[in-house]
């Protein structure tokens, strides 16, 4: 996606390409212009101390061309990542030093976005199985919401896992027709904004191999519609449980009030579905600014429930105006090949979200076509791939030999 | 004398007075012997040994006996677990019963009469004891038939469980000073807990406890300014409006900065509307320095009220906040000099959690951790702003963190 374009611009740009998909033909880059690219900045940051963090992020935003043109006078929505329950930790480590996007990073982004002229900032996440305000969800995780709310004037939270403060859900169509869904019904905050920012955590993912700026948007889907406890005809009033039945496994459809899957005969495999649904969500709600926070994180999966999950300190932040490019650089920083697909780490058992996004023209994952600014990738590498290989070898050793 | 009694219901299958030897070197000093069911020879020998013998239908002076539930994660058929409204396991606990009975009978010792539901895990007996004792009560030790028979037969593994149970009783008996500690609370629940108000009042106590919000039982006709000390909020959920004296007491609390959570049965909503603070279920009003959260409809779901009260107060004011704890209960109390505090934690699942932690509000410099076997260990304490984070070792059933400012 071209940098600084609005959703409307992007919709126009893909409308011709989308026509092919809408007609039922799978879209392929072979028939299209090369997927767009945008610079990606890599920043070294070892702590969440604002004295270190704020200058690093300010420099990174400058390196990608500045964010003033993008946000000045605009309403900005920031989706961050608070996966799981706030009281579920990896050992005794704070959740924001393992699998939650750290509020300090969100606060720094809020501060810089406001300084660049944003009129209003709304910080979003679909809190697990609850309608609790995000402030309360953060407090339960021992996190301070004021780090974000007080980072700038006109900042507010919205829990997007249900209707929230809206009167009705907003329907966002996938301009390319969608891999799995033609469109989604989401919380109003995803349309009541001019600019959409995804601030993710640098992590692997049990189902999707890698979770970054795009996979973060899986949480855009409200569990009242796409969750296990969603209604049959209408959305439920409150979210219950996760999105396993509907989005992961396709064991059920969303309520009749929402758009149904395009083809219920597609594989009912989460390793097939989740990457595609992520791309559908990102196509429907384009990301203008992608930030992947890897100051402190985990290896082994997206949360403490992942087998073999362990803490790590990559000490790095990646940011860019194109989410595919940003995720590609993030994967490279993790020492994975962003050009890899099903069968290669970290996509041994799943499809690559990056490839699927590239295929519909959201952005390139080819490092040769991405301008990397700031710290060179080689200098920023934290070798998730090596840790992953060692963990898999150990798990293999622990499996009983079933040969006769 | 009653304050020192640790009661034990003599099992019907124990016909021989020699079984009294099982009570040697334990803190059990009181037999509940139902008239006609306990052999006279046992009663006689017990009295000769200096044990108090009590007829459960006529408790000794200063003791109030109340019926309870077998505490723990409620199991249905087989190993399946009954879920609560959130999908979380449903937990039975007698802590709220101890507190309610203590509020009804100030100064009395509360005994909880909760007999095992059928056959229970031998390892669950110490929890049954701790579940009442952590709140200042005593569980009437009651054994299921199989456990009683196996203990009497001297089966080694069962005797080990019996020793764990009597060690739990000894643990609390050795810490009488803790009974002088005052429970801390952020939320008061005001009711007469009787008649038409019995269900919602008592269920509120039960379900607020499940949120781990620290609460205080406030009997509405016994309110005094001191009743509201250190509270941030009160709930008035009774089915009739408060009489003028009760109303004045509550509104004085609000005027001073407290939060009243109530519903249309209160009568005319006091204060000035603050519509910018409204939510789906409550209209918010301002009165003096405080607020009133006035429910849009009459209270009928104690679980919802309990959950909503936590948010209306805000987790910011949690006295105890847990992680990785599973199904947990808690009691936070402070010494009369307020320089020492005690966070008692009950783990209701069969298996204790690993890497559990708790954030305790307050500034504490040191602490130690007690477990039911009487062992003490140093606590890993991580200072935070106006709080400490305690990292607990893997413990089963119960732990008490004793903290010093």
Report on the biggest sheet of chain A: 8 strands, mixed
What is the radius of gyration of chain B? 22 Å
Q: Which protein chains make the most extensive interface, counting residues with beta carbons within 8 Å of the other chain's beta carbons?
A: A-B, 16 and 19 residues
The structure class of chain B reads: alpha/beta
Describe this structure in words.
The complex is a heterodimer of chains A (404) and B (405). By secondary structure, chain A is of the alpha/beta class. Chain A has one domain (7-398). Helices cover 29% and strands 16% of the residues of chain A. Chain A has helices at residues 7-22, 50-63, 68-71, 103-115, 134-140, 146-149, 223-226, 244-248, 270-284, 323-333, 353-359, 377-380, 384-398; strands spanning 40-44, 75-80, 120-125, 155-159, 170-173, 183-186, 195-201, 203-205, 209-211, 289-294, 297-299, 310-312, 316-320, 372-374. In chain A, the strands form 4 sheets. In chain A, strands 4-3-2-7-10-13-1-14 form an 8-stranded mixed β-sheet. Chain A has a two-stranded antiparallel ribbon with strand order 5-6. In chain A, α4 (103-115) links the parallel β2 (75-80) and β3 (120-125). In chain A, α2 packs across α4 (103-115) and α9 packs across α11 (353-359). Mean pLDDT of chain A is 93; it is low at 1-5 and 10-26. In chain B, β2, α1 and β3 (52-54) form a beta-alpha-beta unit. Chain B has a 7-stranded mixed β-sheet, sandwiched between helices. Chain B has a 6-stranded antiparallel β-sheet with strand order 9-18-19-25-21-22, covered by helices on one side. Chain B has a 4-stranded antiparallel β-sheet with strand order 17-20-24-23, with no helix packed on it. Chain B folds into 3 domains: 2-174, no CATH class; 185-317, Rossmann fold (3-Layer(aba) Sandwich); 320-404, Golgi alpha-mannosidase II (Immunoglobulin-like, Sandwich). The model of chain B has no long low-confidence stretch (mean pLDDT 93). In chain B, 45% of the residues are buried. Chain B is globular. With 405 residues, chain B is an alpha/beta fold. Chain B is built from 8 helices and 25 strands. The A-B interface holds A 86-89, 91-92, 129, 132-133, 135-136, 139-140, 142, 240-241 and B 86-87, 311, 314-316, 318, 321-325, 355, 357, 359, 380, 384, 389, 391.
């Amino acid at each position: 996606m071209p940098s600084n374009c609005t959703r409307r611009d992007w919709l126009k740009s893909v409308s011709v390409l989308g026509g092919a998909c809408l007609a039922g033909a799978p879209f392929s880059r072979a028939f299209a212009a090369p997927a767009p690219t945008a610079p990606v900045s890599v920043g070294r940051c070892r702590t969440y101390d604002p004295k270190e963090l704020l200058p690093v992020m300010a420099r990174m935003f400058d390196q990608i061309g500045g964010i003033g043109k993008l946000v000045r006078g605009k309403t900005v929505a920031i989706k961050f990542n608070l996966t799981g329950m706030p009281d579920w930790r990896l050992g005794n480590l704070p959740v924001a030093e393992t699998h939650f996007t750290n509020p300090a990073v969100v606060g720094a982004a809020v501060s810089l976005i406001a300084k660049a002229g944003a009129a209003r900032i709304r910080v979003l996440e679909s809190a697990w199985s609850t309608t609790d305000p995000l402030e309360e969800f953060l407090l339960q995780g021992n996190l301070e919401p004021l780090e974000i709310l007080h980072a700038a004037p006109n900042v507010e939270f919205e829990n997007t896992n249900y209707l929230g403060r809206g009167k009705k859900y907003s329907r966002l169509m996938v301009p390319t027709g969608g891999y799995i869904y033609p469109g989604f019904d989401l919380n109003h905050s995803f349309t009541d904004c001019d600019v959409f920012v995804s601030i993710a955590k640098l992590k692997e993912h049990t189902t999707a191999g890698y979770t970054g700026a795009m996979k973060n948007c899986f949480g855009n889907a409200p569990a009242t519609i796409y969750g296990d406890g969603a209604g049959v005809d209408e959305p439920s009033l409150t979210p219950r449980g996760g999105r396993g039945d509907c989005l992961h496994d396709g064991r059920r459809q969303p309520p009749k009030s929402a758009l149904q899957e395009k083809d219920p005969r597609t594989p009912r495999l989460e390793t097939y579905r989740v990457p595609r649904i992520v791309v559908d969500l990102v196509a429907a709600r384009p990301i203008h600014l992608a930030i992947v926070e890897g100051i402190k994180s985990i290896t082994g999966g997206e949360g403490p429930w992942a087998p073999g999950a362990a803490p790590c300190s990559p000490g790095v932040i990646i940011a860019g105006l194109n989410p595919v490019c940003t995720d590609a650089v993030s994967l490279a920083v993790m020492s994975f090949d962003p050009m890899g697909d099903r069968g290669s780490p970290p996509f041994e058992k799943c499809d690559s979200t990056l490839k699927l996004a590239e295929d519909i023209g959201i952005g390139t994952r080819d490092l040769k076509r991405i301008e990397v600014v700031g710290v060179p990738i080689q200098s920023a590498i934290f070798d998730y791939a090596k840790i992953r290989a060692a963990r898999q070898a150990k798990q293999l050793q622990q499996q009983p030999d079933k040969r006769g | 004398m009653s304050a020192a009694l640790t009661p034990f219901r003599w099992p019907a299958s124990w016909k021989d007075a020699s079984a009294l030897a099982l009570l040697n070197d334990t803190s059990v000093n009181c037999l509940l012997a139902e008239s006609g069911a306990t052999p006279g020879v046992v009663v006689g020998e017990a009295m000769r040994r200096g044990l108090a013998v009590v007829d459960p239908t006529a408790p000794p002076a200063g003791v109030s006996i109340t019926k309870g539930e077998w505490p723990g994660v409620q199991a249905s058929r087989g190993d399946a677990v009954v879920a609560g409204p959130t999908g979380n396991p449903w937990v039975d606990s007698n802590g709220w019963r101890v507190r309610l009975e203590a509020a009804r009978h100030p100064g009395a010792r509360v005994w909880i009469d909760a007999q095992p539901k059928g056959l229970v895990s031998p390892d669950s007996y110490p929890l049954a004891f701790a579940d009442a004792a952590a709140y200042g009560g005593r569980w009437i030790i009651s054994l299921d038939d199989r456990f009683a028979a196996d203990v009497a037969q001297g089966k080694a593994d069962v005797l080990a469980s019996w020793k764990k149970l009597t060690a739990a009783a000894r643990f609390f008996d050795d810490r009488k000073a803790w009974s002088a500690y005052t429970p801390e609370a952020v939320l008061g629940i005001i009711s007469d807990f009787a008649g038409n108000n019995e269900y919602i009042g008592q269920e509120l106590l039960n379900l607020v406890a499940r949120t781990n919000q620290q609460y205080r039982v406030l009997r509405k006709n016994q309110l005094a300014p001191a009743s509201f000390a250190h509270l941030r909020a009160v709930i008035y959920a009774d089915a009739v409006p408060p009489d003028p004296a009760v109303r004045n007491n509550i509104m004085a609390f609000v005027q001073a900065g407290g939060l009243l959570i109530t519903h249309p049965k209160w009568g005319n909503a006091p204060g000035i509307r603050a519509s910018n603070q409204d939510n789906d279920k409550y209209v918010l009003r301002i009165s003096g320095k405080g607020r009133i959260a006035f429910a849009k409809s009459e209270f009928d779901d104690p679980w919802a009220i309990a959950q909503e009260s936590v948010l209306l107060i805000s987790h910011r004011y949690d006295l105890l906040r847990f992680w990785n704890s599973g199904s947990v209960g808690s009691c936070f109390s402070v010494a009369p000099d307020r320089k020492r505090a005690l966070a008692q934690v009950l783990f209701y699942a069969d298996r204790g959690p690993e890497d559990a932690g708790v954030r305790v509000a307050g500034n504490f410099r040191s602490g130690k951790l007690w477990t039911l076997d009487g062992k003490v260990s140093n606590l890993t304490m991580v200072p935070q702003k106006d709080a400490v984070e305690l990292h607990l070792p893997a413990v089963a059933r119960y732990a008490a963190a004793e903290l010093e400012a």
